[in-house]
Model the fold of this input.
Amino acid sequence: MEPGTCYLFRSEKTAAKADSFDTLSFSTKMGTALRNSYSRRRARMEKWECTVCGYVYDPEEGDPENKIEPGTPFEKLPPDWACPECGVGKDMFEKL
Ligand SMILES: [Zn+2]
Done:
């Protein structure tokens, strides 16, 4: 596992701990459901779409052709990474 990945996991954990669910800790069914859906949403990595050609970067798949390992979030892509379909830079991508 490369250092960048370790750091990512650490910061995710820290962020999760920092988020307080005290207002939901009266542990009603509703509170639990909200808490569950909230953590699921955080865990899921965001997909980004190329506004030029419609290619979607899926962090869970990465971009093997460009040596981007599966699990690499869009933010961690190298600055010179380009759309595999049309070749535009990261600034042409929009979060889905
Ligand atoms: Zn593109």
Notes: Residues 59 and 73 are 5 Å apart (CA to CA). The first strand starts at residue 48 and ends at 50. The pocket of zinc ion is lined by residues 50, 52-53, 55, 83, 85-86, 88 (CB under 6 Å). Helices lie at 3-18, 29-43.
